[in-house]
Amino acid sequence: MACGPDCPVCGRAIFCTGGSGSFGRAFAAELLTHHEPARVTLYSRGEHAQIEAARALSDLPMGKRLRMRIGDARDRDRLRVAMDGHEVVVHGAALKVLASGLADPDEMVKTNVMGTLAVLGAAWETGVQRVLTISSDKACAPINLYGQTKALAEGLTVGWNVFGFPRGTWYAAVRWGNCLGSRGSVVHAFRRMLRAGEPIRITDPRMTRFWITLDEAVAFALLALRSMRGGEVFLPHLPATTVMDVAKAVAAVEGRAAPFECVFAGAIPGEKVHEDLLAEGEAPRAVDVDAFVVLEPAHLSLPRAPWLGAPAKPMRSDAAPALGFDRLRDMIAAVPG
Fold first, then answer.
1. The model scores a pTM over 0.90
2. Percent of the chain at pLDDT exceeding 90
3. I need a labelling partner for 207 at 20 to 30 A (CA). Which of 34, 88, 174, 243 fits?
4. What is the largest CA-CA distance in the chain?
5. Alpha helices, DSSP H only, in the chain?
6. Does residue 248 have an active-site annotation?
7. Backbone CA torsion sign across 114, 116, 121, 122
8. For all residues of the chain together, what is the average pLDDT?
9. CB 147 within 8 A of CB 106
10. Among residues 64, 96, 138, 150, which one is catalytic?
């Protein structure tokens, strides 16, 4: 995204939770290369991941403006200290693996729900201007604990405008699909299987997913920060494809001629065959403004202009525009590792 007079990050201090993860590092790299933030603070609890992130980012054009802060997104006292003096917060810290929700449900709730509440409160207490929570399509019509915790995180983010909006702190969220090439993604899993000479394990050949690249996710987060008026959930227009096609594209990039060996293991507990990005029940309060879809709050009235646009339609992965195989293969080829 080119900088301009309405750039949401230039000249501002930016704070990112989950900062040493895939999105946080990509977000910081964009800011430190193509923008002029006053500083970028990456906040996370993994000191080794922070060291790796600092090594990768410190030589960028604005690398001297990078700050690393150790801390837990659940710790409101620590957040208040680390967040002080920042104008923009991007909240990306989350536990995301479905199996974690099955094995350690209390930990997922503590991070995804109580951690979000801590971030929202600390931002309000320190006078942050804009807070953007990174959500997921799993939050839409959720059927597993991860999705339920992300739905609660979205609801808390929108609801905190009751406290923040009168004092100049605006809260909004972005909701997108699978981030292609992020840490732990299916692309990396399929690569490991192929390189180890193992069959690719696929849950269900019918399964479809929305896809977004890390670069696209970063650009969309910046667009949401620039556009937000408070209380919205922003949704990008995303293509979708089957997980089977992803496996085929990974095999093509790895130079494995089709057919390759597959094992169909069946969906894991709580996993949908098709994902929703905008549910049928949400569509009446959503508008399509061409560049994105805006989901307005259900039970919150704010003294700001409403979003105007075309009526939005439900968005489901098996009915979304198809991601062409050539494009999918090129996207996967660009994923490091």
1. yes
2. 86
3. 174
4. 60
5. 22-34, 47-57, 76-83, 98-103, 105-109, 115-125, 145-159, 161-164, 186-195, 214-227, 243-253, 325-333
6. no
7. positive
8. 94
9. no
10. 138
